[in-house]
Write a structure and sequence with these properties.
The complex is a heterodimer of chains A (393) and B (301). Chain A has 393 residues and is α+β, with helices and mostly antiparallel strands. Chain A has 9 helices and 20 strands. The complex binds adenosine-5'-triphosphate and magnesium ion.
């Protein structure tokens, strides 16, 4: 079922945890709340589950306003980070707990418990107590317990963070599979961006009590609405400079210091926007932060930030004519790729990701190179923020 | 779950380490003190129960005649039953009164919490005699309770509350309440708040959460309280003596009388041995029951 939040805000004492925000999760959608620690993710989930009362705003489940409904009558399933299994009950009793509240007949209850344990492949552990299970197993029991009551929506608060890496990846796939199988509307909290990118239909990136951007993983990665979003998700080069006319594309160039980079496809659209220029910058928050916003704003003379992902850059030999001159400053071996930090002469340091297969041997620190945009490059001009820092360095 | 996953999960479960450990060196002085001050006198005392004694003097070899005499006495069995029943009754009362108090203490903060805690722990801070006399003042014919009852016209004649089983039970309950409340407080505080939230999320009413989620998780604490209160109540002496009055008898009083008034050390020692043994037995049985009830709190090997 659809979840709709309108103008929801929450302060603890005089300390705001959430500024008024709108958010809609469509029926059957898998949405991830992503953000650094303390940005209000848990608070938002708890408001939907009914454990925290918002200071203002309404919460809807489908067409029903549930803002004032007590937590035990919301039919919103919340999976806790700590699993919160009942330690004094067996696995089967844990799963049966919510069903007993609903006064199912003995037979239907037993059937449902079995069905759920089967779903999460925990049938053979039915008689065990939670203390006798591993973290991943407890996780699955907690999921079975929630799904057993057939909630209208499912909320998961960092369900994987207590697991070690290997198990986390395994459970991540399994969770995604289970949720898809049940087809339930899901909100998932994490501060692990990899998790967010792989699992979600849409990501809401949160920053200090606001939603900085709400979009598909691809849009959030390629067209972030702010520097915060750009730097929070994936590795990024954020280059400060100006947009000036000219260049081979017949559009615009991005100039920083003595250097310039051609603005291509998307960014060229941004430059076209810059030409008619007068539109005021829009707030980068809530639903307004759609992918289109970056194309319509900014001041021609103002300083802008260009996002270039490390995998959109390549290293050329120092003898090449294309690209920007620089020297290798840092080097990191990721296994499947190398990450180079290249000091551009009279410019910023740029991070370049070179896939292992593509590189002809390692480049030592100090090697002169040239950095250029590769074929796949899609730079992105970060939309100027509402409190326009135009002109500031 | 795949087979590989199962193997992985099994390896994640840490085996419980529950081996007997030798007494560490720093505990040695305390251990020696315990042996000299507690174990040795107890051994001497108990030895009287199996020796042929006349008064306080050892006369002959080993004999179980004293035990035979005691165990065939109907009065002794009556006394035994009464003592057991009173201790059990006091334990139940402490449990019933202790739970709400413990919950209250975990729910309030600041000075209110301090006041309630001190009020509960107060009996431990005063001498047994003074405490007993305080109860005499409260429960006597001209005492506080009777004053309240007669002055409000609830009763015409003062009711007799003192020097009876009930005054002993009241006094002991107050005395032993902290031994119930304190372990309960820590047990309640140990219950993860998330489990009650999860229960609410699953649709449970507050009533169900209380009885099905909260209370069961405090069983280990209640068990500790029950053990302490029962063992202490079962062997309580001062309160039984002072609040029970002349006609009241209790196993501890019986032992005292045997030793001092009758100078029958054999009988006193045998009764003491039976008191100790039955107390231990009860505590062991209790713990077996609790272990079964709290299987969930143990990890498997
Ligand atoms: N019960 C509370 N009382 C006071 N302040 C609170 C309370 N709960 C949360 N906060 C504050 O509200 C803000 C948001 O907290 P929240 O738990 O929602 O963050 P989060 O995004 O879930 O962080 P994390 O990733 O660390 O779990 C934080 O600054 C936190 O200190
Ligand atoms: Mg959180």
């Amino acid at each position: 079922m659809e979840i709709v939040l309108t103008g929801v805000a929450k302060s603890y004492g005089d300390q705001p945890a959430l500024y008024p925000l709108d958010l809609t999760v469509k029926e059957g959608e898998f949405v991830t709340l992503l953000g650094p620690s303390g940005c209000g993710k848990t608070t938002l989930l708890r408001i939907i589950a009914g454990f925290v009362t918002p200071n203002q705003g309404r919460v809807y489940l489908g067409d029903t306003d549930i803002t004032d409904r007590p937590a035990n009558r919301r039919e919103v399933g919340l999976l806790f980070q700590s699993y919160a299994l009942f330690p004094h009950m067996t696995v089967a009793q844990n799963v049966a707990f919510g069903l007993k509240v609903r006064r199912l007949s003995k037979r239907r209850l037993a059937e449902q418990v079995e069905r759920m344990l089967d779903l999460v492949s925990m049938s053979e552990y039915a008689g065990r107590y939670p203390k006798q299970l591993s973290g991943g197993q407890q996780q699955r029991v907690a999921l079975a317990r929630i799904l057993a009551i057939e909630p209208k929506v499912l909320l998961l608060d960092e369900p994987l963070s207590a697991l070690d890496r290997q198990l986390r990846i395994q459970m991540q796939l399994e969770l995604a599979r289970l949720i898809a199988e049940v087809g339930i509307t899901t909100m998932f909290v994490t501060h692990d961006q990899e998790e967010a990118l792989t699992m979600s239909d849409r990501i809401a990136v949160m920053d200090r009590g606001t939603i900085a951007q709400y979009d598909t993983p691809g849009e959030v990665y390629d067209h972030p609405s702010s520097e915060f979003v750009a730097s929070f998700i994936g590795r990024s080069n954020l280059i400060k400079g100006q947009v000036v006319p000219g260049g081979a594309a017949g559009g615009a160039q991005f100039r920083f210091g003595p250097h310039s980079l051609p603005l291509r496809a998307d960014a060229a659209r941004g430059a076209a926007g810059l030409a008619d220029g007068a539109e005021p910058p829009e707030a980068a928050g809530g639903r307004a932060a759609t992918s289109g916003i970056g194309h319509r704003e900014g001041g021609t003379a103002g300083e802008r930030t260009l996002l270039v992902r490390p995998d959109h850059l390549e290293l050329l030999p120092a003898t090449a004519t294309a690209g920007l001159p620089g020297t290798v400053a840092t080097f990191q071996d990721l296994g499947e790729a190398f990450i180079y930090g290249v000091d551009v002469a009279d410019g910023p340091q740029l991070t370049v990701r070179v896939p292992r297969g593509r590189s002809e041997g390692l480049l030592a620190v100090g090697t002169p190179v040239r950095v250029a945009l590769n074929e796949a490059a899609a730079e992105w001009l970060i939309p100027a923020p509402a409190d326009s820092r135009v002109g500031a360095s | 779950m795949t087979a590989a996953g199962g193997a992985l999960d099994a390896s994640l479960i840490e085996p419980e380490r529950r081996r007997f450990r030798a007494i560490p060196a720093p505990l040695l002085p305390a251990t020696i003190m315990m042996i000299i001050l507690l174990v040795a006198p107890l051994a001497v005392l108990l030895s009287y129960s199996v020796l042929e004694v006349n008064g306080a003097a050892v006369e002959g070899g080993i004999s179980f005649a004293t035990f035979g005499r005691l165990l065939s006495s109907r009065y002794f069995w009556f006394l035994f039953g009464r003592t057991f029943a009173i201790a059990l009754g006091v334990t139940l009362l402490c449990l019933v009164i202790g739970y709400p108090i413990a919950f209250l203490i975990t729910r309030v903060h600041g000075w209110l919490r301090a006041v309630i805690l001190v009020a509960v722990a107060a009996p431990l801070l005063t001498s047994g005699i003074i405490r007993a006399f305080a109860w005499i003042v409260i429960l006597g014919k001209q005492g506080l309770v009777n004053f309240a009852l007669t002055s409000t016209g609830l009763v015409d004649e003062p009711v007799s509350l003192l020097f009876q089983v009930r005054s002993v039970v009241i006094g002991m309950t107050q005395l032993l309440l902290p031994f119930m409340v304190i372990p309960l407080i820590s047990a309640i505080q140990d219950v993860p708040a998330e489990t009650t939230h999860a229960a609410r999320n699953l649709g449970a009413s507050e009533f169900r959460i209380f009885w099905r989620v909260l209370i069961p998780q405090t069983v280990p604490g209640a068990a500790a309280g029950i053990t302490l209160v029962f063992a202490l109540g079962y062997s309580e002496f001062t309160l039984a003596m002072l609040l029970g009055g002349g006609s009241f008898n209790y196993l501890s009083i019986y032992i005292y009388d045997s030793m001092t008034s009758l100078l029958d050390w054999g009988r006193g020692a045998a009764a003491a041995a039976l008191l100790l043994a039955s107390s231990l037995l009860t505590v062991v049985i209790l713990n077996l029951v609790v272990r079964r009830l709290t299987r969930w709190s143990r990890q498997i090997n």
